[in-house]
Amino acid sequence: MKSSLNIKDKKFLDDYWLRYQKLFFESRNDESILNFRNSIASTCENNGRLIFMGNGASASLSSHAATDFTKQAKIPSIAFNDHNLVTALSNDYGYENWISKAIEYYSKSNDMLIFISVSGESTNLINGIKYAKKNKIKTASLTGSNKNNTIKINTDISLWVDSKAYNIVECIHTIWITLIIDMFVGHPEYSVN
């Protein structure tokens, strides 16, 4: 069977895989991942829960993370992305303020708020971080794009991907979250029931 791979496709694929290789292996930062994991463990020890939030695909990752931290890692977690919650609070307080209102209504001082954003510049998340800081609630973030993005530099602990490629950053965020879950479980292969 003849390969359908042309020069343009080969260049694109080589570049794409090289980006992952650089981000995963050449820029590997295990210390940051361990610090993130330890902060989650501390939250759990203090009877706090994890609260995940993001927009778009980061909202989907928030649901995935909250479900698997609760089910697999046995760490109580929720995600702020129910359409009823988002639309009701956005309608009443404005889209830029719905997350800070959700934090006000649902979080406790011993919780850990985890903000997920590729750009690190989402106004609704930034306003949530401001509310959290004012009320002394622990914050963490997973971001990409610029190293000094607003969300990254204003959270207590962060994981940052040195890329502006949305799909690549989102995939790496997913791998980091699931890696941390598996660290709590104790191994990468296990029954999910």
At a glance:
56% of the residues lie in helices and 12% in strands.
The portion of residues forming beta strands comes to 5-15%
Widest sheet, order of strands: 2-1-3-4-5
Number of domains: 1
What is the mean pLDDT? 95
Report the helical percentage: 55-70%
Q: What is the CATH superfamily label?
A: Glucose-6-phosphate isomerase like protein, domain 1
The helix-and-strand class reads alpha/beta
Q: What low-confidence regions span 5 or more consecutive residues with pLDDT below 50?
A: none
Estimated radius of gyration: 18 Å
- Main sheet overview: 5 strands, parallel
Overall geometry: globular
Q: What is the H/E order?
A: HHEHEHHEHEHEH
**CATH structural class:** Alpha Beta
The name CATH uses for the topology is Rossmann fold
Question: What count of helical segments does DSSP give?
Answer: 8
Query: For the terminal residues, how far apart are their CA atoms?
Result: 42 Å
What's the β-strand tally? 5
| CATH architect. name | 3-Layer(aba) Sandwich
In words, what does this structure look like?
The chain has one domain (29-185): 3-Layer(aba) Sandwich (Rossmann fold), CATH 3.40.50. It is of the alpha/beta class and 193 residues long. It is globular. The mean pLDDT is 95. Helix 2 (30-45) packs across helix 8 (166-185) and helix 4 (83-93) packs across helix 5 (98-106). It has helices at 7-26, 30-45, 57-71, 83-93, 98-106, 123-134, 150-154, 166-185, and strands spanning 50-54, 77-79, 112-117, 138-143, 157-160. Strands 2-1-3-4-5 form a five-stranded parallel beta sheet, with helices on both faces. 56% of the residues lie in helices and 12% in strands.
